[in-house]
């Protein structure tokens, strides 16, 4: 039997598969992806699903439209990510960079500092490259595990297929992307929304 030194075994286990995309390849693919339009399926921790359409435009813009029957909307305008609830007439907002999606929306994000490729054995989406990103300085904003599949027709040869976001409370939200189109023009007007909050009149004014 051929003897293999223990350190050599460890090196073989830790080494990426030959030809597997590196973190630098992922960075290049994201940099080449300026816009994305897609259908999506969103699955919550309890298994409930929602469907809709997504528009993404870097830097900082994304819109998740859950359809005409939904009373809510998620949209980022380049600086703020807003959850708009028309039923209760409320808007919750966060800086885009302080959300797990920030790493996908920020063209200046350095993946080498905040992300790593997960081993194939730990990747829940076989056939994809799994990239786990989390800001060590801001663990309260949660983490994102996003997936890319080799695709010669996609920018940089890698197609973003979806992600899993885990928030600070451990809640898991999975988004799967389908019917994707890349780098087609998307107007900035798609990333605005009708504000449902009631207008408050200044004190002392009547009428």
From TrEMBL:
Q: Which domain of life is it from?
A: Bacteria
User: Does this entry carry the keyword NAD?
Assistant: no
Asked if the keyword Lipoprotein belongs to this entry, the reply reads yes
Signal peptide residues are: 1-19
InterPro entries this protein is in?
Answer: LolA/LolB/LppX (IPR029046), OM_lipoprot_carrier_LolA-like (IPR004564)
Keywords on this record? Lipoprotein, Signal
**Which PANTHER family does the protein's record reference?**
OUTER-MEMBRANE LIPOPROTEIN CARRIER PROTEIN
Please identify the protein, giving its name as recorded: Outer membrane lipoprotein carrier protein LolA
Q: Which organism is it from?
A: Sandaracinobacter neustonicus
